[in-house]
Amino acid sequence: MLRTLLFISPLYVTLFWLIVLNTNADKNSPPRAFLGKFMIFASVVYFSHFLFFASLKELYVWVDAFYQYASLMVYPLYYIYFRLLTVDERFSFSKHARYLLPSTILFLFYVVGILLAPKTEYKMWVFQKNLPFSSVGIQWLSVVYVLIKAVFIIQVVLTVTANSLLIRKYGYKAAQYYSNMHDTGTINVNLLNLSMILTAVASITIAILGRDYFENSTFRIGFPSVIFSALLFVIGWLGNRQKPINPAYEVNQEDKNELADLELNSGRKAGVLQKIQELFEQKKVYLRSSLTIQEVADCIGTNRTYISSVINEFSKQNFSAFVNQYRLQELEKILRSGQNLQAHQLAELTGFGSVDSMKRALKMKTNKSLTEWKEEIIKQSHK
Question: Is the model's pLDDT at 246 over the cut of 60?
Fold first, then answer.
């Protein structure tokens, strides 16, 4: 009973998130909807595991090819999910299908081997690959199987590496859109990547050892099952909570055309800059911790692409740094006033929203801690 619960637990987790993510699919959140598709293939993998380890081998034979295909698909699908989360606007078959092509080709090769192999030999080969087989179909399958193992490991390494690079790009884009980086879901994105890194390590280990290594030991099968269940639950939970953070979703052709006009009109740029300065200096919108560049654009009556372009050109900063500059000025005023406030109160009053955000902005601007900067300001005030 315990053994069954252990190796079926990842299937329960993937089925749960499959239902949640696909029934709550949001057209305005392509990443969340696509993560639901990832869970479909993950469910196929763990359903196949269930049949294999439950000794339902007559049934497993019928899904073996789909298991191989699903195993090859999960990491490319997760990479596409990360692209949608960080740099791409929406799923495009012409753009993203290439990442799925190697998996599909190997699957077709595998099916060809099944068709060529005698049915009896194929059933034996699925569970006892070390036995000598003479048929062309089994020899073909043996070669394809090795390729599948190799490609799977390569996919895992490439996915983890590529996702880490995408996070860097995401951080740059988020800084152009959000005033507080803790509002961007950056922590969630990093946790999503970390969860997949841990899953990747476990996947490579299991791929090298082979499923036969786990078949006759409750501990051997239980340990990776618990690990995969936990990691898949975290991926589903974080992915379901993650809001659409890719600002590219909101860029339309009209915005791009207006930006092109703006690039040709320096007087218009100066006018936009003046409106931004008035908004910040008179209305102090920077005191809103959740302020985004879209909200600034709405207040001025233009689009966020305009605002980003003007701020980048005139202040040589991204939006986040530009806003934090005003917040630090507000912080300095409060400290000079002599008010004895706690760090969390200072963060709230200046619009940073969190002490960590305030400390990071201060460190980046002055290379000093809050305590050091506070002492310096107090000394200057007493002169």
Answer: no
